[in-house]
């Protein structure tokens, strides 16, 4: 269901070539990656049980906070292609406009790299790989 929604979102616009996506600002990719991951996590939590919106939000934070995303990307590093890890590093190395409020700077940078990868996969139309990484992300956080 989520995969089809992602494909419709991408196809509703236009799947970009890898060259076009690589020309996009890493923080722009991270911006979309953050939204895609947040929607994925919200859907996952809604489907796992009938709880209040307050509980859903509290549970979502466990997955989307910078520390969790940094942990995810470190766990996934060995499974990523060189190209994917290059995208993570581009996102990680970007200077953000404002320092993180509730996160360690290193975690924040790796979280930005993770979100950049998700945005990259989204815009290149690699929804199978995007879903695989997001599902593994849930497994990583759930195992801790």
From TrEMBL:
Q: Provide the cofactor list for this protein.
A: Mg(2+)
Quick check: keyword Hydrolase in the entry? yes
Q: Which Pfam families match?
A: Ribonuclease_3
Where can this protein be found?
Cytoplasm
Broadest EC class? hydrolase
**Key words, A-Z:** Cytoplasm, Endonuclease, Hydrolase, Magnesium, Nuclease, Ribosome biogenesis, RNA-binding, rRNA processing, rRNA-binding
Q: Which Gene3D superfamilies match?
A: Ribonuclease III domain (1.10.1520.10)
Q: Which SMART domains match?
A: RIBOc (SM00535)
Question: Which SUPFAM superfamilies does this UniProt record tie to the protein?
Answer: RNase III domain-like
InterPro entries membership: Mini3_fam, RNase_III_dom, RNase_III_sf
List, alphabetically, the GO terms of the cellular component aspect.
cytoplasm
Reported EC number(s) for this entry are 3.1.26.-
Q: Which GO terms describe its biological process?
A: rRNA processing
Catalytic residues (UniProt): 34
Disulfide bond recorded as keyword:
no
Stored HAMAP family = RNase_Mini_III
UniProt family annotation: Belongs to the MrnC RNase family.
Q: How does it assemble?
A: Homodimer.
- General function of this protein: Involved in correct processing of both the 5' and 3' ends of 23S rRNA precursor. Processes 30S rRNA precursor transcript even in absence of ribonuclease 3 (Rnc); Rnc processes 30S rRNA into smaller rRNA precursors.
Instruction: Tell me the protein's name.
Output: Mini-ribonuclease 3
Q: What is the lineage of its organism?
A: Bacteria, Bacillati, Bacillota, Clostridia, Eubacteriales
Q: Which gene encodes it?
A: mrnC
């Amino acid at each position: 269901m989520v995969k089809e929604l992602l494909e419709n979102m991408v196809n509703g616009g236009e799947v970009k070539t890898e060259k076009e996506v690589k020309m996009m600002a890493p923080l722009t990719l991270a911006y979309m990656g953050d939204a895609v991951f947040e929607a994925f996590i919200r859907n996952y939590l809604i489907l796992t049980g009938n709880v209040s919106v307050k509980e859903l939000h509290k549970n979502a934070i466990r997955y989307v906070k910078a520390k969790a995303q940094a942990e995810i990307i470190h766990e996934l590093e060995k499974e990523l292609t060189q190209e994917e890890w290059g995208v993570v590093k581009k996102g990680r190395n970007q200077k953000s406009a404002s320092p993180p409020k509730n996160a360690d700077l290193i975690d924040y940078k790796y979280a930005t790299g993770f979100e950049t990868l998700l945005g990259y996969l989204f815009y290149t139309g690699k929804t199978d790989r995007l879903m695989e990484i997001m599902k593994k992300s849930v497994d990583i956080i759930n195992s801790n």
